[in-house]
């Protein structure tokens, strides 16, 4: 049983689910409904060629407590109903936490995809989710050496297996099918011109009016910034009465392949997303991260990513002189993570 609920998890699910079926196993997909609108959910299943979920719990939005509680209740019911050999959770969302808790309480083996990532900032909800999921799970599928070291320090390294990063698999799988960036710009009604790709969705940025205003101030004198607006960000901007700089062009949420296409041709990616930091690295696009820390420390150490937080001066400076590393080693694997994951699960649990 694969538990997903948010855009980054759909991307990770695509190569995993394809490999599960390729190796002859049966899979039940439970969508918690954490991301529930067309632009953040159904569109991803269609373009990533994922089977329709067997169950949609319709959790929707709400506080962390209410979302996690509703997801936990629904997942528990479905685990009892479907009786899976193993529950697989992905990433660091409330759906991840709920899936891991449901499995461990029902004594069903659990595997955590993208285990071992740490920001070491406990104020981040995602940090708590990933730590608890790792300590609940029976099998920790780690994307890189840093994650393996983190798990070892926490005394759970004996459950960990280095499999590589499934986001590499996902990116490689769409390279031949993704549109040209120029075609995406044309669809959006934007004249071809040098641009930044901007995303802002983390609560630490969106829910703090001072931080959110500073981010846009830092962009004000830069090139065109194409800004697919997350629903939470749009609500925060409206509530705060925020006026965007003239060079920031808002668009509705984009599909995965369109985002990858825009990243591949951008002057830089400006983001607080963990996934986009890594995708930018894989695409050799400079990344300016609107956080003070990152789980993907390799991208910073190798010179492709710079952490600027919500400091408008630092943002402006990084946009004017984007980071660009000299080397690009395959620190996240070779695109065969899904194969390693499914094989490891079958060997460990006979699934």
Q: What is this structure, in a nutshell?
A:
This protein has 351 residues and is α/β, with parallel strands linked by helices. Helices cover 46% and strands 13% of the residues. It starts with a strand and ends with a helix.
Q: How would you explain this protein's 3D organization?
A:
Helix content is 46%, strand content 13%. It is of the alpha/beta class and 351 residues long. It folds into 2 domains: 2-165 and 333-349, Glycogen Phosphorylase B (Rossmann fold, 3-Layer(aba) Sandwich); 181-320, Rossmann fold. The chain has a 7-stranded parallel sheet, with helices on both faces. Helix 11 links the parallel strand 9 and strand 10. Helix 1 (7-22) packs across helix 16 (337-349) and helix 8 (181-188) packs across helix 12 (256-265). The chain is globular.
Q: Give, in order, the helices and strands.
A: EHEHEHEHEHEHEHHEHHEHEHEHEHEHH
> How does CATH name the architecture of the largest domain?
3-Layer(aba) Sandwich
Strand count, sense and barrel status of the largest sheet are: 7 strands, parallel
Low-confidence stretches: none
Q: Total helix count?
A: 16
CATH class of the largest domain, named Alpha Beta
Note the beta-strand portion: 5-15%
How many strand elements? 13
The strand line-up of the biggest sheet is 3-2-1-4-5-6-7
Q: Write down the overall geometry.
A: globular
Give the number of domains: 2
Alpha carbon gyration radius = 19 Å
Q: Summarize the amount of helix as a percent range.
A: 40-55%
Give the mean pLDDT.
Answer: 94
Which structural class do you get from the secondary structure elements? alpha/beta
Distance between the termini: 11 Å
Per CATH, the superfamily of the largest domain is Glycogen Phosphorylase B
* CATH topology term of the largest domain: Rossmann fold
């Amino acid at each position: 049983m694969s538990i997903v609920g948010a855009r980054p998890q759909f991307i990770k699910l695509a190569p995993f689910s394809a490999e599960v079926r390729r190796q002859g196993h049966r899979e039940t997909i439970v969508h918690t409904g954490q991301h529930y609108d067309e632009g953040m959910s159904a569109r991803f299943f269609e373009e990533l060629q994922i089977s329709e979920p067997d169950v949609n719990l319709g959790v929707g939005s709400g506080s962390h407590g209410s979302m996690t509680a509703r997801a936990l209740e629904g997942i528990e019911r479905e685990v009892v109903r479907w009786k899976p050999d193993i529950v697989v959770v992905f990433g660091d969302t409330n759906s991840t936490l709920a899936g891991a808790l449901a499995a461990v309480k029902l004594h069903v083996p659990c595997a955590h995809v993208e285990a071992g990532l740490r920001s070491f900032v406990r104020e981040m909800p995602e940090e708590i989710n990933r730590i608890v999921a790792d300590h609940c799970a029976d099998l920790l599928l780690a994307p890189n050496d840093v994650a393996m070291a983190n798990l070892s320090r926490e005394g759970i390294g004996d459950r960990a297996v280095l499999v590589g990063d499934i986001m590499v698999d996902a990116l490689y799988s769409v390279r031949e099918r993704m549109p040209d960036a120029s075609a995406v710009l044309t669809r959006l009604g934007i004249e071809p011109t040098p641009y930044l790709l901007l995303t802002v969705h983390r609560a630490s940025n969106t829910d703090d009016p001072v931080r959110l205003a500073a981010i846009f101030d830092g962009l004000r004198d830069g090139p065109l910034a194409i800004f697919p607006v997350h629903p939470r960000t749009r609500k925060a901007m409206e509530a705060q009465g925020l006026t965007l700089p003239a060079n920031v062009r808002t668009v509705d949420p984009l599909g995965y392949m369109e985002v990858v296409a825009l990243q591949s041709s951008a002057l830089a990616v400006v983001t607080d997303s963990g996934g986009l930091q890594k995708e930018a690295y894989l695409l050799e696009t400079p990344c300016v991260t609107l956080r003070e820390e990152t789980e993907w420390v390799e991208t910073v150490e190798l010179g492709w990513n710079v952490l600027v937080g919500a400091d408008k001066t630092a943002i402006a400076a990084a946009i004017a002189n984007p980071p660009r590393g000299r080397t690009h080693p395959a620190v996240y694997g070779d695109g065969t993570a899904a194969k390693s994951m499914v094989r490891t699960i079958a060997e460990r649990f006979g699934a």
